[in-house]
Amino acid sequence: MAGVLSGRGIRGQFRRTIDTRPSALKSGCLLASGEDQQMLVLGYQGTLQPDPNSGGAGNGPGPSGEPVHEGAPPEMERLIEPLLAKGLLGFEHRISSGQRAFGGEPIPLDALLELLRERLRGILTLAVAAHLEREDGSMARIGRELLVEFPGLALLLQQAVSEWVAATATFHERLQRDGVRLAGWLGFASPPPVESVTGTSSDMHSGGHVVLRVVFKGGRCVYYKPRSISGEWLWHRLLEIVAETEPALRLPAGRVLEGSGPARYGWAESVLFGDGARGGIEGTAARDEYWHVAGAMLCLAHHVCLTDLHLGNICATPNGPVVTDAECLGTPRFLDSLGLGNSGEDTESGAFLQSLMGTGLLPVGNVPRMPEVSGLFGSTGPVPNLWLPRWTLERDGRWRLAAVPAVLIDHGNAPGKVSMLAVLPQFLEGYRQAASVLMRSRRALISSGSCWRSVLERDHAPRVVLRDTLSYGILLSKHLEPGYLRSGRRRRSSLRSALQRDIAGTFPDAAVRAELHALLRLHVPRLIALPGTRTLATGSGRSLARGFAVCTPAEAVVRRLEELSPERQESVHVPALILAALRAGGSLQHG
User: Which residue, 40, 414, 509, 578, is the most exposed by fewest CB within 10 angstroms?
Assistant: First the structure.
């Protein structure tokens, strides 16, 4: 998951959230000059960055003097330091000294502490800014005064620290428990020392858990995923079966290792050059070869109902594009009232195109001022009406918070600049080849009793994306404004109203309550479809709404694979791909 870009139809969400419905998610703090402007103060690291060409304050409050320094108010940092110390002490009480070492050397904690520091900064930013904007704002007494002025801060800060302790301790326990298996899986004779553990741009979910990048001495790298990895296993096994059927079609994918014990988590091998990936070569695939693989990827992803493949979930490698997050594999179609999975087109090819667009891999087209965030053709660039915080120390000696335009970070999801039209022949060739191989191998995939189908039916619970993470991120940041930190009741009521207003009664009440519970704790809600059912549930498996989906995840995949035929491929699929390229136009996109 990648940060604020995670979610279905992100570019449509940009338009709906920011352009056409500013009143629903309007941010009133620091951005009074534009009703539809939004500031993110939490959870954008690794996905967005301040525009380096903005020159400082952007469209925020006018400075009283030329900024002489950027950073953060030292008193805010001094307020954070005791919280970091408390977190570290809590971690040391929970994890023995022996568990803090791996391969005979200590596991580095610095980067994990920085994750906590960034989270605490995000929680404090708007409250500190409001305090310092007052004429009598006192830096010396900021800590004590803040907690009195904003009673809601204390609980949020305490929760952030306690969740960091629990999530960090859980990671260490799991690394120790799986150490010998993990070492053998990576080809080590014994567990190697850990060189670094860093955060990624993934969403923060229940309990403060996030995806972590673990680099071992010697160069090998894995990603710790604190959730079920059944989606990644199904995708990797699908690519293996495809390669066994047609050795000339080998799509790159990282292996996965399921964690030990009853908890659902696992480890994913990195496939990036420079991470010690086996078989990697420097550089990128030749242009024709790369886009041949890309076309094959689209075919396979569509036919196993894999969605949410925006630019943050695709990486370009020497052997072609790679899926880095497959938790949405098997996404079923939901009730028509949600408007998800519906074609909006009269022709069969038009309807099929909308289905292809659901993967997130294809460009939406040239929407003025909107960034392209598709998995295969997404690009870095400014995000209109979205702003990030930047502290400046001005010549009058006061720290002030400025709003700086946000820019998408380059996610390394594509090897160069090209339009879909320019690579359409290679794309179609790869799509056709993958479709042919799927028709030959689908018996091995979905025949009764096959291992792949069994996992899909009994174990896999695909993530259900009701709203994109940008919408959640805006809500989280808005409700860290001073007015909401003064009254917990107002914060809860406003969040509930925003969630209900946004969906106009189309979501079950239980789902909205689950979203509200997560957002109050500053988490991105994570919902799933329970294995073998049509039931919507929380990430922990608590049922929210039965009959929410039109079919089960397995039924959705089996139906698409069974419908695949040479006649349908040429009469429906190919025209839809040509239509997609024509809609996207011939403008250069980073892909």
Answer: 509
Predicted local confidence at residue 286, as pLDDT: 67
Contact 301, 361 (CB under 8 A): yes
Q: How far apart are CA 446 and CA 18, in angstroms?
A: 42
Residue corresponding to tokens 């995708």 = 235
Burial string for 198-216 (b: 16+ CB within 10 Å, else e) reads ebbbbbbbbbbbbbbbbbb
CB 194 within 8 A of CB 273: no
Sheet-wide strand order for 256-258: 194-199, 212-216, 221-225, 266-269, 256-258
pLDDT tens by residue, 224-253:
999 999 999 999 999 999 999 999 999 998
Beta-carbon count within 10 A of 427 CB = 26
Instruction: Round to whole Å and give the CA distance between 563 and 132.
Output: 63
- Confirm if 325 and 229 have CB atoms less than 8 A apart: no
Q: Which two tokens stand for residue 390?
A: 């930047």
Cβ-contact 506, 337 below 8 angstroms: yes
Interaxial angle between packed helices 574-584 and 348-357, expressed in degrees from 0 to 180 and rounded to the nearest 10: 70
Q: In angstroms, how far is the first alpha carbon of the chain from the final one?
A: 19
Stated pTM of the model: 0.88
Cβ-based neighbour number of residue 542 at 10 Å: 10
Report pLDDT digits (tens) over 423-471: 999 999 999 999 999 999 999 999 998 999 999 999 999 999 888 888 8
Question: What is the rounded CA–CA span in Å between residue 81 and residue 179?
Answer: 32
